[in-house]
Amino acid sequence: MKLSSKDKSPQHARRGVWRQRIWWVGGTLLGVLGLTLGLWQWDRAGEKRDYLAALEAAPHLISPHETPPDGSRITLVGEYLGDETLFLDNRILEGRHGVAPLTPLRTEDGRLWLVQRGFLASGAGRETPEVETPEGRVTLEGRWQVAGKAAPVFGPVREGQRLQRIELNAWESPFAYDGWLHLEVGPGRLTPWWTPSVMPPSRHVGYAVQWWGLALVVFVAMIIGGRSLRRDSLPVLSDSSSSGSKE
Predict the structure, then answer these.
(1) CA 213, CA 203: separation in Å to the nearest integer?
(2) What's 151's DSSP letter?
(3) Residue 237 forms beta bridges with which residues?
């Protein structure tokens, strides 16, 4: 609906100026947000590429006596401490609900290592899961994950034998290093559920392009809409004013 000449008064022009300011400020903020999120996703893609490259180049260590690099493959020889098994709760694999058994391993030199053994279907109940643990000397191989910054947990981390996240201090005896072995080969291995990288770099690149596309749309809409608002806010002189000025 177009405004009449009477509606396009200086007061209307002032309101139009404020609408223009709000329009430009809001559009600029949305556009900058899109650009920023796109850059963040682009950086995440680079980080994932570096991480995957580091995994490919990770060493294969046998009972290391120094902190293993994140992602390295490790071979350990020792004995499971089955009675000290705890369960990482709320794992989902192929639509099934379950847990991941976490069993300490004492190597032949007396050091303790935590082994994440895979997925164990347990249903939605809260009873303590049961898992068979091999006895005697075992040789294990898997991928090492360094303990990093853990996601926040709302509520207690430990409920009975279940853990909401891996906490090394949930066991009384200290482990050799801050991290755990994701078991890939050896006795006690269950169905794997963990992967080193959940989202591939290409998906981060796709998200970056989407955010930048959104920013472009916002800037184009901001220019077109801004011009329209500017035209609508211009005051129009009435016929009487125009004739009076001629006299």
Answers:
(1) 15
(2) P
(3) none
Q: To which H or E segment does residue 107 belong?
A: strand 96-107
Judge if pTM exceeds 0.70.
no
Rounded Cα gap, residues 115 and 100, in angstroms: 10
Which residue from 42, 147, 157 is spatially nearest to 88, judged by alpha carbons? Answer: 157
CA distance 75 to 62: 5
Beta bridge mates, 146: 179
Q: What is the pLDDT along the chain (247 residues), one digit of tens a residue?
A: 444 544 555 655 566 566 666 767 777 888 888 889 999 999 989 988 888 887 778 889 999 999 999 889 999 999 999 999 999 998 999 889 999 999 999 999 999 999 999 999 987 677 889 999 999 999 999 999 999 776 677 778 888 899 999 999 999 999 999 999 999 999 999 999 988 766 788 889 999 999 999 888 888 887 777 667 666 555 555 554 444 444 4
Q: Are 210 and 169 in contact (CB under 8 A)?
A: no
Confirm if 70 and 145 have CB atoms less than 8 A apart: yes
Whole-angstrom distance, CA of residue 154 vs CA of residue 161: 18
How far, in Å, CA of 125 to CA of 119, rounded? 16
